[in-house]
């Protein structure tokens, strides 16, 4: 999932999540229209089915139903389409940062601590962006200290090995094991790249 030096243009960056949110908004839109339709149409339908009322009253109820049909459904369709389009842009301000955070987690897993997350001004989750960057910065600082301390320990061990060169192999065994453990520690610490930089989320 490489984002460096590349501008992401698509509004759909997480199909599963964004389509689920969009479907929820559209469903709620249809439910709202359905309740509104029941509130508007049911009284006239009841009047239309009441045979005890005069023909003129029932005809007026039928005219109301036809008039409401011609005005409400086009407006309802336009409203639902508007809600769907607006929600897509609105969710992008949330899903975009989540997409970027997921990329950041992948980078940390791969040992890269050289980046800082930068999301757009109009995106949501800026507080989470700050917390994530501080976490990466602290982690990188601690690992840098471990790497430097490991180098100092290896240097000190090398000096010690020179001073005890006359020792027997048996006497040197603890030093050999100590060097082996330090090498393992340094190999693990070197897995992480610590050079700082910024890679923007667009």
Detailed description of the structure:
It is rod-shaped and about 120 Å long. It is 74% helix and 2% strand. It has helices at 15-49, 55-109, 126-163, 169-189; strands spanning 117-118, 199-200. The protein contains 4 helices and 2 strands. Helix 1 (15-49) runs antiparallel to helix 2 (55-109) and helix 3 runs antiparallel to helix 4. Mean pLDDT is 85; it is low at 197-202. Strands 1-2 form a two-stranded parallel sheet. The protein is an all-alpha fold. It has 2 domains: 11-110; 113-202.
The largest sheet is:
2 strands, parallel
Globular, elongated, flat, extended or rod-shaped: what is the shape?
rod-shaped
The low-confidence parts are 197-202
**Main structural class:** mainly alpha
Distinct helical segment count:
4
Distance between the termini: 14 Å
Strand order, biggest sheet?
Answer: 1-2
Radius of gyration: 34 Å
Index terms:
202 residues; mainly alpha; 2 domains; two-stranded parallel sheet; 4 helices; 2 strands; disordered C terminus
Summed up:
This protein has a two-stranded parallel sheet with strand order 1-2. The longest helix has 55 residues, at 55-109. The protein has helices at residues 15-49, 55-109, 126-163, 169-189, and strands at residues 117-118, 199-200.
């Amino acid at each position: 999932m490489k984002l460096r030096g590349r501008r992401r243009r698509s509004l759909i960056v997480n199909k599963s999540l964004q389509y689920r949110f969009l479907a929820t908004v559209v469903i709620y839109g249809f439910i709202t229209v359905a309740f509104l339709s029941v509130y508007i149409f049911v009284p006239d339908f009841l009047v239309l089915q009441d045979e005890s009322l005069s023909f003129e009253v029932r005809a007026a109820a039928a005219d109301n139903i036809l008039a409401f049909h011609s005005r409400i459904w086009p407006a309802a369709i336009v409203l639902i389409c508007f809600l769907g389009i607006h929600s897509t842009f609105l969710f992008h301000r949330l899903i975009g940062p989540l997409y970027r955070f997921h990329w950041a987690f992948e980078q940390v897993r791969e040992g890269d601590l050289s980046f800082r997350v930068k999301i757009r001004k109009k995106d949501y989750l800026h507080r989470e962006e700050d917390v994530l960057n501080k976490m990466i910065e602290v982690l990188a600082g601690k690992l840098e200290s471990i790497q430097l301390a490991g180098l100092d320990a290896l240097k000190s061990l090398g000096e010690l090995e020179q001073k005890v060169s006359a020792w027997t192999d048996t006497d040197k065994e603890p030093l050999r094991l100590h060097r082996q453990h330090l090498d393992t520690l340094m190999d693990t610490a070197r897995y992480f790249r610590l050079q700082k930089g910024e890679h923007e989320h667009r």
